[in-house]
Specification:
By secondary structure, the chain is mainly alpha-helical. Helices cover about 55% and strands about 5% of the residues. The radius of gyration is 18 Å and the shape is globular. It starts with 6 loop residues before the first strand and ends with a helix. The N terminus is likely disordered.
């Protein structure tokens, strides 16, 4: 009693359940899978993870705006040093835009008229 609640996520790691801990655990698992040549997870799991990642990213963008949504600073969506190729990003962006039925023209209008990013 009185101690911090911990979630056991494997035999080797514990988590306090914070978003940072959960993300770090996911990254650890993904790195292990890459090293071991494990098969890719179910597409539905990846889709849910992407949806959550996008929502978390948008929260960071708004948080960085310090309550001023008329002037939002750019928060890079990826770390400066990452392993994604231009092809990886192009495939993802193309399919995301198609699924959401967003044309490049509309995206350019958003950027020039209403995105309010520096």
């Amino acid at each position: 009693m009185g101690g911090e609640s911990k979630l056991v996520v494997s035999n080797h790691m514990e988590s306090d359940g914070s978003i940072d801990d959960v993300v770090n655990r996911c990254l650890h698992i993904l790195n292990e899978q890459e090293l071991n040549g494990s098969s890719a997870p179910d597409v539905e799991v990846v889709q849910k993870l992407l949806e959550c990642a996008i929502k978390l990213y948008v929260q960071c963008v708004y948080k960085n705006a310090s309550g001023n949504q008329d002037h939002m600073e750019i928060v890079s969506p990826l770390p400066q040093h990452n392993t994604l190729t231009d092809t990886d990003v192009s495939i993802f962006m193309d399919l995301l835009l198609k699924q959401r039925k967003i044309e490049l023209f509309e995206l350019q209008m958003w950027r020039s008229l209403g995105s309010n990013y520096d």
